[in-house]
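Morning, I've got a small favour to ask if you have a moment. It would help a lot if you went through both lines with me. I owe you a coffee for this, so here goes:
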Amino acid sequence: MRLFDSLEIAGSSLTAHRLWMDLISQNLANVNTTRTQDGGPYRRKVPIFAERLEATEKGAKGVRVEKIEEDDLPPRMVYQPEHPDADEEGYVAYPNVNVVREMTDMMAATRAYEANLMVVESAKEIWGSAIDVLRS
């Protein structure tokens, strides 16, 4: 294991979990968006994580977001015949975003982010102690 592997791994996880939190924020911001440029309601976005087991030319070991996908759950149908986006039966297609699920995902992403931040802080302390030993 190289000297900075732990930092590279923790750093890649920090980046991936920050992107996940950004997607959660985007999902929550669009919880009531019934019309997008593509037509139809907003669709929940989720990250697909992939591990990097070996260091490559493109990056170090750790985790990365392989792609961002739209959740394939159907939209939430609400009867609102007066709504401008209502269909001929009076139903409006709302995004497939569940606020409780998004908040749960946000807590998981935040905890993972904090855990990796603790790895970085621990590595800093260890290296600081090693430098102090070498100085004396």
